[in-house]
Amino acid sequence: xxxxxxxxxxxxxxxxxxxxxxxxxxxxxxxxxxxxxxxxxxxxxxxxxxxxxxxxxxxxxxxxxxxxxxxxxxxxxxxxxxxxxxxxxxxxxxxxxxxxxxxxxxxxxxxxxxxxxxxxxxxxxxxxxxxxxxxxxxxxxxxxxx
Length: 146
Ligand SMILES: [Zn+2]
Hints:
Helix content is 39%, strand content 26%. With 146 residues, it is an alpha/beta fold. α5 (97-118) links the parallel β3 and β4 (123-134). Zinc ion binds at residues 20, 22, 47, 82, 85-87.
């Protein structure tokens, strides 16, 4: 009898993406990352990157990156924030969209520095996801932030 050698299937991926649970995003933004990275791990939580900024959740968030890097050799950490995020109080928390965007730019940068503090060699990418009503559904627009 021939003994079959266990085939080792490569299951490494390019990135781990942090995203909000908000369903309005996923109709389009998941497809964007699929196109961009093809293979990626995804961590959905309300507020996406919010946990990096919360002392009690930071370890859990960094752990996801560690696991993704160890098991799937992901090199990119993609951080997202989006328009009208309920976890941050939605739009009513901001004077206008400019103020909102400035706020998310700031906390995306803070989150990036937290990630780099733990994983100095990680390639961190930041995205802001715009949202516009489109009939009963929503259209997204992804913007990569420098
Ligand atoms: Zn949200």
